[in-house]
Amino acid sequence: MKQILVYILVFSGLTISAQNTESPKVFTYENYLTLVRQNHPIIQQVNLLEAQANAQLLKAKGNFDPKLEAEHQHKQFSNKNYFRATELGLKIPTWWGADVKVAYNWANGDFLNPENNLPQNGQAIIGVEIPLLNGLLFDKRREQVQQAKLLKNLNEIERQKIINNFMLSAIESYWNWVYAYKEYETYNNFKNLAQNRFELTKQSFLQGMKPAIDTLESYIQLQNRTLAEQQAKQNFRNNGLELSVFLWNENTEPLEMEENLIPNKIENLVFENNNTTFSNWENSINNHPEIRLLETQTQQLELKEKLKKEGLKPNLSVNYNFLGNGFDLVNPYLGEGVGESIFTNNYKWGVQFSYPLLLRKTRGDLQLIALKQKDLNYKRIYKKQSINNKAQSILEQLTLTRNQLIEQEKIVANYQSLLNAENVKFKIGESSIFLLNNREQKLIDAQLKQFKQIVLLNKLNEKLNNALGLIK
């Protein structure tokens, strides 16, 4: 039995797999975030919102584009020129509600409507149409431009909202990868210690200084550590695959995680409590994308309300056109002065008036807008309180975790001291493999818990940033 045991112990150590000799490369937290922000398709997609808003603003401004108009009519029947009429014109909308018109008309014919009789050289026209009540201070065209500007703000807020939530997922994935690596690194280090102890114990056994049971126990511990290391290594690779979901190159092509990539030393990533970060808590909540989104929607309703209130006024507009002889608008007919020709003789003007008597449609629209404004106000009050409560909860959890981490660091130091003492006792023969392995396992558990708290602390810090809408 002893010979069989010796055979197993002497040759079993050869089955332990060799480590990857490829030197690792550090994939820093900053480089990771930069890569995600610059190249990820979702980030590229939300960046299109700004272009969409600019296109909408351009479209709304198109309501004020000058319009070139032309019309020609000609009737010929039984070898008679009944009439021939041509009009060329340019209509220029203005921001102040008035429309300016510049045109030239030409007409002749045997049966021309007397109303359309024109000078032989045709007639140039300069006219203006002005709304005096409804539409003078505000109209649909101006409302569309201002709505488009609000839409630009709205899309920017929506972009920040999406990035705020998306980047949190990317950050949490990185921290999961960090912890998986620290877990693998920890088991790898202690596996190497178990490997060395097994070799020393095996040599001591072969020299007759240690019993076979110690060598077997150290080998079993090596097997357990090897299995734990292999599982941790697989978890590290799996987390690397999850992290690669966020990695794309500048050509929007997915990247694969290299196996030799490792994170920063976790000690360099510990969240430093900065009291100034959240010094203006109320301001952070007021500037939260969710709150700004509701406020912008309220501004949109205010524009609609302003336009609908114009509908309470009567529709009254006047138009006035200066008429010329050909292109002569100053003195179209001989013997007439400038003032006489423009203001007392050669003109065409008109007035239009309409007013719905009951205004039920307009009043109904205003009531609906008022109800929507109340609804948005209630949502804003609730959302502010919800954001505040969520952020307060995360802050309390963050503070608790930081205090626990301080205590856990002390626990790790104490377990390290116990292990060091046990090693001394083992060297002078006053301890055993069992006690030494037990001390090491306690230290492993304590270190992993410490790493988990460090990772949790950094996650909570980013969750607090996310709750306050500060991730960009």
Task: Note the topology.
Blueprint: H1 2-12, E1 25-26, H2 29-39, H3 41-61, E2 67-77, E3 80-93, E4 99-108, E5 123-131, H4 140-206, H5 212-244, E6 261-262, H6 281-286, H7 289-310, E7 315-323, H8 338-345, E8 347-354, H9 360-427, H10 433-467
Parallel strand pairs: 1-6
Antiparallel strand pairs: 2-3, 3-4, 4-5, 5-7, 7-8
Helix pairs in contact: 1-5, 2-4, 3-4, 4-5, 4-7, 4-10, 7-9, 9-10
3D architecture notes:
By secondary structure, the protein is of the alpha+beta class. It folds into two domains: 2-60 and 141-304 and 365-467, Up-down Bundle (Outer membrane efflux proteins (OEP)); 66-136 and 315-358, no CATH class. Helices cover 60% and strands 14% of the residues. The protein is built from ten helices and eight strands. The strands form two sheets. It has a six-stranded antiparallel β-sheet with strand order 2-3-4-5-7-8. Strands 1-6 form a two-stranded parallel ribbon. The longest helix has 68 residues, at 360-427. The two termini are 68 Å apart. The model is unreliable at 1-11 and 13-20 (pLDDT under 50).
